[in-house]
Amino acid sequence: MKEFLEAALDGEMAAHLDEAERRQGNKRNGRGSKRVKTMAGEIEIETPQDRHSSFTPEILRKRETILGDCNLNSVQKHLPLYY
């Protein structure tokens, strides 16, 4: 689950940082860590950050710490893209 969430967040960041964003000076700016509670227990993931802090992930939103049922639907929607 950890690897999937990190890969999905990286993909969302890559889509966010399109040519227009980069032209405005926005680019990757390291990673932050985040603890997330799942049905299997608590995991710590690394989340990508951008310089302008304008990145708003869909699969696991900012300040969200519990991967609940509605998030699982989002994860299931993204699974075919990776597997």
Folded structure, characterized:
- This protein is an alpha+beta fold and 83 residues long.
- The chain has one domain (2-82).
- It has 3 helices and 2 strands; from the N terminus they run ααββα.
- The chain has helices spanning 2-16, 19-23, 69-82; strands at 28-38, 41-50.
- It has a two-stranded antiparallel ribbon.
- It is globular, with a radius of gyration of 13 Å.
- The mean pLDDT is 86.
Features:
single chain; 83 residues; alpha+beta; 2 strands; transposition; Mutator family transposase
| Low-pLDDT sequence parts | none
**Strand count:** 2
Gyration radius, to the nearest Å? 13 Å
| Biggest β-sheet strands, sense, barrel | 2 strands, antiparallel
The gist of it:
With 83 residues, this protein is of the alpha+beta class. 41% of the residues lie in helices and 25% in strands.
How is the topology of this model organized?
Layout: H1 2-16, H2 19-23, E1 28-38, E2 41-50, H3 69-82
Antiparallel strand pairs: 1-2
